[in-house]
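Why does residue order matter? Because the sequence determines the fold. Keep that principle in mind as you read this record.
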Amino acid sequence: MARIRVLVVDDHRIFAESLAAALAAEPDVDVSAAGSGPAALRCLDRGVAEGRRFDVLLVDAELGAGPAAATGAAARGVPDQAEPAVDGISLVAGVRRAQPAVRTVVLAEKDDPRRAALALQAGASGWVAKDCSLQRLLAVVRGVLRDETHLPPALLTGVLRELTAARKHRTDSERLVEALTPREREVLRCMVAGLGRKAVAERLFLSPHTVRTHMQNVLGKLGVHSTLAAVALARRAGVGPAPLEADTPPGQEPPGQVAPGRVAPGQVPPGRSLPGDVVERGGQPA
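Structure:
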């Protein structure tokens, strides 16, 4: 019998461990629980390293947003700067990029069409109420492994409306970005990367005055009044940040390469160990 490896990610420890225990009672399920986004990423990486990849991630929709997250970190003696909060949607997107074979289901306390749509856009395969029956949850877990997408019927209309609106906004944003000159698009990518005017000037070998002019032109053509709004619109249009390595031409970065001295997302720096709420039920310790 093929076993299903499930990772429950919820900063409400009692809920996470209770759900893990319930799922572990199934004869074909091995389940672990992580109490934060960073702990979940470490657990996923460990599973890959040990040849015991997870199949399904069950993620709290409000992960990292409530007092339980801060309380849990304090209880473990983890300073805020040592383990930054990772919200549920960001975790879904990160796992989708790093381990696309892992199916993600979001567990929510209430129906929220907008957040459900965001979760689907980030790569989630399902949205399930936290108070659903164990049989319903198991059906969803097994369904997403067959590449099914699961949503409560009551959410379907609202989610479709949100996705349609998001597609329209993306199309409008893409049209505005296409109106920029190649140099202005370069400047915009630098803005998305968080570079200031001086850094952009040094990177593109331009004067700060010229960069200021380009930035003003970008804001004007995009119809926004701030760098933050321009970056948000660029993101909607699918514009990625310029690579931070000055000697790497845009779009030519080797896949998966990380510059010396930098740490990839979700990776623990060498020689440093961060504690995390990870427990295992029905399998080996995670």
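Residues 68-82, 246-281 have pLDDT under 50 and may be disordered.
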